[in-house]
Amino acid sequence: MTKWRRNCWLMNDRLLSLLGLARRAGRLSLGNDPVLSSMEEGKVKLVLVCPDLSQRTLKGIESRAEAFGVPLVTIEQTMDQVSMSLGKRCGVLALNDEGFARKALTLTKTNGEDLII
């Protein structure tokens, strides 16, 4: 894939654009440890995980999200796509703003489930 096509594809992905905006606004936690610390502080409104995340990390994040009552959604984008868009390789993301979390839920496919934030 050429650099131009890769950038064009990323610009058309609305979820990645929203995550980039949330990062610039300081409302996004990237990585396992920052997400867990944000959960402990009670800031997290929504946790997003990539489908190629390791099972061990996913299990730990799922248990902590359930303990803190935070909704968790698996997104379609891989860790490589997220890293190209946000500039940091990570498979766990947390939105710390209610507005960004609501918009991210509308952009992700939740298979008809109604998640309340």
From TrEMBL:
Transmembrane segments: none annotated. Residues 15-92 form the Ribosomal protein eL8/eL30/eS12/Gadd45 domain. Pfam families: Ribosomal_L7Ae. This is Ribosomal protein eL8/eL30/eS12/Gadd45 domain-containing protein. It comes from [Clostridium] leptum DSM 753.
